[in-house]
Structure formats: structure tokens, C-alpha cells
Design goal:
about 120 residues, about 55% helix
Length: about 120
């Protein structure tokens, strides 16, 4: 069997892919950071591979916004899952994803507030 090996990019190259995603989404660093639930300075660290922040550690967030994980880590394939290489998530899609993320956080907080007291008190 003849398998092709795929080489994962270095962290600097993955950081460049992260910057490309942000640029193609037409977002600034602050808006993108909010979208993925991170602080802007942390996203900057991921892009620049500083302070032990590796862009590859954002894989889950990248997939959740519709970016092809294979492209993100290897540079191979389409940027966005199921689309051509030059397409990426639209600004409107990003805004919707951000709103969904916020709603999820609010609902999670409400669940915590409504959870029964574990001490057995009423």
C-alpha cells in the first residue's frame, strides 16, 4: 500500500494560517478573539508563537468556525470546509457564531444558578 505522508506545519506557519483566517473573515483581532472566546492579546500570541501560545492549540476553535483543520495544520486543501481555497467564513457568519457562543455562555451560567445545592440543603 502506497500512503502519502502529510507533514504538519511548524507553529510559525500555523500562526500565519491563523492570521490569514482573520484577514479573510474581514475581522480585526478583537472581534476574532471574541468569536473564539479568547482575549485579543492571547490571539496575538498564538499568531506570533509567543509566550508558549501555539496556534495549533486553537484547532478546536478553528474547526468550530468552519475552517478545514487539515488546511490549518498542513496548508493542504481548502481553507474552509467544503469550499474553494479562497473562500472563508463570512463576517455575517462570524457574527452569528459569536452570538451563539454568547447565548451558550448565558445558558450555561443559568444552569449553574439553577443547579441544586450539593450539600443537601433546600
Amino acid at each position: 500500500m502506497n500512503k502519502k505522508s502529510v507533514v504538519v506545519l511548524g507553529e510559525r506557519e500555523i500562526g500565519r494560517n491563523l492570521q490569514r483566517v482573520i484577514d479573510e473573515m474581514g475581522m480585526d483581532l478583537k472581534a476574532f478573539a471574541e468569536l473564539i472566546g479568547k482575549k485579543p492579546n492571547h490571539v496575538s500570541n498564538f499568531i506570533n508563537n509567543t509566550n508558549n501560545c501555539k496556534a495549533s492549540n486553537l484547532l478546536q476553535e478553528i474547526v468550530l468556525i468552519g475552517i478545514n483543520p487539515k488546511w490549518y495544520l498542513t496548508g493542504i486543501g481548502d481553507v474552509r470546509m467544503g469550499e474553494t481555497p479562497t473562500q472563508c467564513i463570512s463576517k455575517r457568519d462570524a457574527e452569528i457564531a459569536s452570538l451563539v457562543r454568547r447565548l451558550y455562555r448565558v445558558l450555561r451560567e443559568e444552569e449553574k444558578d439553577e443547579a441544586p445545592d450539593k450539600t443537601g440543603a433546600f
